[in-house]
Amino acid sequence: MKLKNILIVVKEIEKSRQFYHDLFGLDLVLDNDGNMILTEGLVLQEEKIWKKFLGKDIIPNSNSCELYFEEQDIEAFAEKLEALYPSTQYVNRLMTHTWGQKIIRFYDLDGNLIEVGTPM
To answer: Is there a single domain that holds both residue 85 and residue 45?
Structure first.
């Protein structure tokens, strides 16, 4: 068995697709009416579909998981994030851990937590 995809819930799927393309270079693999598969295995699903499946409310900014990306030039990434999405809600702006890794944590357009760090 192997993990194939990670699914996140989004309100406006096209805006979210653009966000993940702009910041991480993820491209559309499949568009299936409210479900989009992007490169690297990220799946976007419209909130109304997910809510119907679960029969429960969606809780944005739940801090129960995060998407983790690595970027060698994290300073340039932080600048791009600020330029393209200036209203980004940060958990922490660019910082350096005691072990030397630089990271930035923030929420996507729908409150999904993202961490970008330099390779370890």
So the answer is: no
Specify the length of the chain in residues. 120
Cβ distance 29 to 37 under 8 Å? yes
Does one domain contain both 53 and 9? yes
Q: Which is it for strands 113-117 and 66-70: parallel, antiparallel or unpaired?
A: parallel
CA distance 44 to 106: 18
Residues 17 and 54 in one domain: yes
Predicted TM-score of the model (pTM):
0.94
For residue 100, give its domain range.
61-120
- Residue 83 makes CB contacts below 8 A (sequence gap 6+) with none
pLDDT by position in tens, the chain (length 120): 999 999 999 999 999 999 999 999 999 999 999 999 999 999 999 999 999 999 998 999 999 999 999 999 999 999 999 999 999 999 999 999 999 999 999 999 999 999 999 998
Residue 55: left if φ>0, alpha if ψ -120 to 50, beta else—which one?
Answer: left
